[in-house]
From TrEMBL:
Pfam families recorded: TauE
Name this protein carries in UniProt: Probable membrane transporter protein
Family: Belongs to the 4-toluene sulfonate uptake permease (TSUP) (TC 2.A.102) family.
Natural source organism: Saccharopolyspora karakumensis
A cellular component term, taken from the record's GO annotations: plasma membrane
InterPro entries: TM_pro_TauE-like (IPR002781), TSUP (IPR052017)
Membrane topology: Multi-pass membrane protein
Regions crossing the membrane: 43-66, 87-106, 112-131, 143-162, 174-193, 244-266
Main location: membrane
Length: 268
């Protein structure tokens, strides 16, 4: 029988448990870099394997891995995909503030109600995207510059707040917002979403790190695995184009719907 590692910051994981979490972080990084939704893989694995810890430690530690992966993905996209930095950076800043607020209120809001709201939203997102096969195939922003920026700031604030509460599907919601409302192509939307997602993870960590909720040893090891997966995912997305990203997006949305639906059914 494998014994616990007993290393500081690893929550007494076994070696097998650590390797499993690294594999989950790698896969989560790849999926998240393409369309978001990597938390569907990484966070549940941590909740199952971290022995005797509170949920908040899993949430906080997962942000260390996530911010490393999203940063690597954003850098990879920036090299291969044109990006509107003058719009992406303000959206990221607003999302950071929203995420910080969401993290601070994580324990005060009824998660059961939020899960139902997000489940309904994901179903609508999935059906809408499936019924519009040309959605996101061409990068053609349809609004004047000021209105486009206003929509991006609104999306950053709302979705950033949700990510601070550790809600699932943040990256997928960002991609859908940019594709459906701003009329970005899927690849451009994914690239922009990664920049914003870096900010949402950072905003949450501004709360979690001073609160002492991060398991640094585990977080840094999982971050390395997440980076490797993120670079792979971003390279695939940028190379294969919007049609590939759309297929992965729909797959991830279905997975999120099943996961959230199962969680709500069990809690009920």
């Amino acid at each position: 029988m494998l014994t616990a590692l007993n290393w500081p910051g690893f929550a007494d994981l076994t070696l097998a448990g650590l390797l499993f979490l690294c594999a989950a972080a790698f896969l989560a990084g790849a999926v998240d870099a393409i369309v978001g939704g990597g938390g569907l893989i990484q966070l549940p694995a941590m909740l199952v394997l971290l022995p005797g810890g509170e949920v908040i430690y899993s949430l906080a530690t997962s942000k260390i891995a996530a911010i490393a992966g999203t940063s690597a993905a954003a850098r990879t996209y920036a090299k291969r995909t044109p990006m509107d930095w003058r719009a992406a950076l303000p959206m990221a800043l607003v999302a950071l503030v929203g995420s910080l607020g969401g993290a601070a209120l994580a324990d005060a809001l009824p998660s059961s109600v939020l899960n139902v709201v997000v489940l309904v939203a994901l179903v609508v997102v999935g059906i809408y995207t499936w019924r519009k096969p040309d959605l996101g195939s061409v990068h053609a922003p349809r609004f004047a510059r000021r209105l486009q920026l206003a929509l991006m700031l609104l999306g950053g604030a709302v979705i950033g707040f949700w990510d601070g509460i550790a809600g699932p599907g943040t990256g997928s919601f960002l991609v859908f917002w940019l594709v459906s409302l701003v009329s970005f192509a899927f690849v451009t939307a994914s690239a922009t979403a990664k920049v914003v997602n870096v900010a949402t993870n950072l905003g949450a960590l501004f709360f979690f790190i001073p609160a002492g909720k991060v398991l640094w040893g585990l977080g840094l090891v999982m971050a390395a695995a997440n980076i490797a997966g993120s670079v792979l995912g971003a390279t695939l997305a940028a190379g294969r184009g919007s049609a590939f990203v759309r297929r992965v997006f729909l797959t991830v949305v279905v997975g999120l719907v099943v996961s959230l639906g199962w969680k709500i059914a069990l809690s009920g």
